Amino acid sequence: MLDLSQLIQQKNILLAVFGGAAVASFAVWVMSRRKRQKTEYELVGEVTALHCYPVKSLTGISHNVGFCTFSGIRTMNAVDRQFVIVRHNGDFITQRQVPRMVAIKTKCEGDYLHFQADGMPDIKVPLNPKEDKAAIRSCRVWQDQTLAQDCGEEISQWLSEFLQETSLRLLVVTPVIKNRSCKVNSATGKDTLLFQDEGPYLLATEESLADLLEKIDSPAREEINMSNFRPNIVIRCSKGPWDEDNWSHILIGKNLKMRVLAPMGRCVLTTVNSKTLKRREDGEPLKTLRRLPTFAVCGLGERPHQPMVRWHEG
Ligand SMILES: *[C@@H]1O[C@H](CO)[C@@H](O)[C@H](O)[C@H]1NC(C)=O
Ligand SMILES: *[C@@H]1O[C@H](CO)[C@@H](O)[C@H](O)[C@H]1NC(C)=O
Ligand SMILES: *[C@@H]1O[C@H](CO)[C@@H](O)[C@H](O)[C@H]1NC(C)=O
């Protein structure tokens, strides 16, 4: 067997030689609710992109390798939504209230997360900061009152300046902090979240996005893409659009099993325009989405720490 890192470095060569087998190993299979025999997986497509958003509501990192933990996808050394930005009273903020957040890019290098935005100096914070009991603060994410460690003054000033609000703070989950529990009905006590909204993974298919865009009857169609929806795992589905509405279990490659938790709530965050840094006045894609089946599903990993590779640049 080939070592994974070798596989990644030599991706192009390997694809040419072992293409068929490699693609098959990251195929996506699902159990459908509509099937009578619920224990049978059927092949529905393949993984085409992986995205990790280390800071809730900032631009994420796309990479062709991800590790699945119970609390979300890990890309390089960053875990999905391990950071959150809060106001001085501890309330979380997202692009819903602060659309300018869409203009902050993040990049992972070694043990640091770098922040970049136009007109601002680059700045970095450690992904695994030293435990500091004195820096633990309480914060609120939706209904959850939780704790997280403050990342310090420098990043606080940087974020406050760029986002034009006083006293914003960046908080991070550290190993001593209890993870949030997942509130969706089908979740069990073992299912945990960092700062994600509903489930540790969000999945979307290219076909449903294409169908949605086709139905948007305005220039918005040219400006909306997968980034508006912030999925972690993008799937090319051979069964056509909206097939995911009937999925109950997902198997990726040979080992990664997920349970579908719920359809993802649609929200105004999808209407933030990354060029104007404002919410779209035409209300798209939300306006059209309201007339259609659910666009994305959130899932729970059943077996963590299985590596996944994406093979198609997209
Ligand atoms: C919380 O989530 C992190 C990241 O997935 C994990 O490493 C840690 O073990 C979890 N902590 C608890 C208490 O479950
Ligand atoms: C979506 O469009 C934005 C702005 O045009 C671009 O920066 C981003 O890379 C695109 N995302 C995807 C997934 O194509
Ligand atoms: C999902 O299942 C329902 C009920 O069985 C069916 O009516 C619907 O067509 C299915 N949707 C898709 C996209 O297959």
From TrEMBL:
Domain MOSC: 157-314
Single Gene Ontology MF annotation: molybdenum ion binding
SUPFAM superfamilies given in the database record: MOSC N-terminal domain-like
Record keyword Transmembrane present: yes
Regions that span the bilayer: 12-31
Pfam families found in the cross-reference section: MOSC (PF03473), MOSC_N (PF03476)
InterPro entries, per the entry: MoCF_Sase_C, MOCOS_middle
Keywords: Membrane, Transmembrane, Transmembrane helix
Name of the protein in question: Mitochondrial amidoxime-reducing component 1-like
Organism field: Plakobranchus ocellatus
